């Protein structure tokens, strides 16, 4: 499973794994893939620096990447504002609606002194830039932006540090814009993917993006969780695959909520929904009473990014802390239907590569006219 891009990065397999967990990223690197740590969950640059220091010591010398979130557009009136100022823009009616949802499900308050653990401050540009300052002090081989290309000065700075720059795209039009902005790698993220997605399926999107940005390398993402699907992605012209959801039920992920792990293991491919309930932008996640409430036409509807994420931060922390099952969810793709056991990252990689080889061999026999 070697391609021009994987050879350039010096990795054994063209498997790129996005994860918020440093232990997963490191294990994937040691298994021959390429771990990409998501930075959006970090409350401050010091926490990110600590985990990047840990990654430097635990990847076995293999390269790794970092994924930041710098939106190309924000809610009108919030451009350039810091977190406290943005908080002040949130309507009181939406705060009441959050309280009503929590009250309807008897969600207790957080224990005294505990603060919201998950906030989307990483989507505020000043926070993301502080994270980048940390990243440039580490041997990060690839810098990815989940919501379009990074600003031009960030691309220039990353290239000066020898980093490749990647950006996720949900359409060929977006991909062309990324290429024009100087991005080195385009991730074609299909409708099936977890987190922020567009409306085009991976099977359609990948070859469109490959043609649109040729000769830039493209990674296929969305609905990929088996060796056969990896082979399909490469057959469509991709130089690798970008996997995220698949790592949520690995041993190294160590989700803090056993109940959430159980929900993921029990979920089928039809148990996700593309909703703005979490961040303000359409993101695929487990369908729950929380997503139903925000998608209800009778409700006020989600706020635009970054207001929605700031609005719901404490509520989500309370839901997760108390494991309130009807409301408990997470971003995850339709591939969740294959995630039926907790396994080590290396076991997942071994299965992916083994089944990829079998799929390629089978296609070779078909192409050769043999059975």
From TrEMBL:
Protein name according to UniProt: Monooxygenase
Keywords: Flavoprotein, FMN, Monooxygenase, Oxidoreductase
Gene Ontology molecular function terms on file: nitronate monooxygenase activity
Organism: Streptomyces mashuensis
Entries under PANTHER family matching the protein: 2-NITROPROPANE DIOXYGENASE (PTHR32332), MONOOXYGENASE RV1533-RELATED (PTHR32332:SF38)
Keyword Flavoprotein among record annotations: yes
Family matches, as Gene3D superfamilies: Aldolase class I
The keyword Flavoprotein is annotated on this UniProt entry: yes
């Amino acid at each position: 499973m070697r391609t021009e891009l994987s050879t350039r990065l010096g990795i054994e397999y063209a498997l790129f794994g996005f994860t918020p967990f440093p232990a997963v990223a490191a294990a994937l690197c040691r298994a021959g893939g390429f771990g990409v740590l998501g930075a959006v969950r970090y409350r401050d640059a010091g926490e990110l620096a600590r985990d990047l220091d840990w990654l430097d010591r635990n990847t076995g010398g293999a390269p790794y990447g970092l994924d930041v979130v710098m939106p190309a557009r924000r809610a009108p009136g919030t451009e350039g504002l810091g977190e406290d100022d943005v908080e002040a823009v949130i309507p009181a009616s939406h705060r009441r609606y959050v309280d009503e949802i929590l009250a309807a499900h008897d969600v207790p308050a957080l224990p005294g002194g505990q603060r919201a653990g998950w906030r989307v401050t990483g989507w505020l540009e000043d926070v993301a830039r502080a994270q980048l300052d940390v990243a440039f002090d580490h041997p990060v081989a690839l810098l990815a932006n989940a919501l379009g290309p990074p600003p031009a000065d960030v691309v220039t700075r990353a290239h000066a540090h020898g980093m490749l720059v990647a950006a996720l795209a949900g359409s060929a039009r977006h991909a062309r814009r990324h290429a024009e902005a100087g991005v080195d790698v385009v991730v074609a993220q299909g409708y099936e993917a977890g987190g922020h997605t567009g409306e085009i399926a991976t099977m359609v999107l990948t070859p469109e993006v490959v043609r649109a940005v040729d000769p830039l390398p493209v990674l296929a993402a969305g609905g990929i969780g088996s060796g056969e699907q990896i082979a399909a992605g490469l057959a469509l012209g991709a130089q690798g695959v970008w996997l995220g959801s698949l790592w949520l039920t690995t041993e190294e992920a160590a989700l803090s909520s056993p109940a959430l792990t159980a929900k993921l293991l029990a979920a089928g491919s039809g148990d996700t929904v593309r909703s703005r309930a979490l961040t303000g932008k359409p993101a695929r996640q487990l369908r729950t009473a929380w997503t139903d409430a925000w998608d209800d036409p009778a409700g006020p509807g989600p706020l635009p990014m970054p207001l929605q994420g700031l609005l719901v931060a404490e509520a989500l922390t309370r839901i997760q802390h108390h494991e309130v099952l009807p409301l408990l969810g997470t971003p995850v793709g339709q591939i969740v239907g294959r995630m039926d056991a907790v396994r080590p990252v290396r076991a997942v990689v071994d299965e992916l590569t083994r089944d990829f080889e079998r799929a390629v061999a089978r296609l070779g026999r078909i192409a050769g006219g043999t059975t």
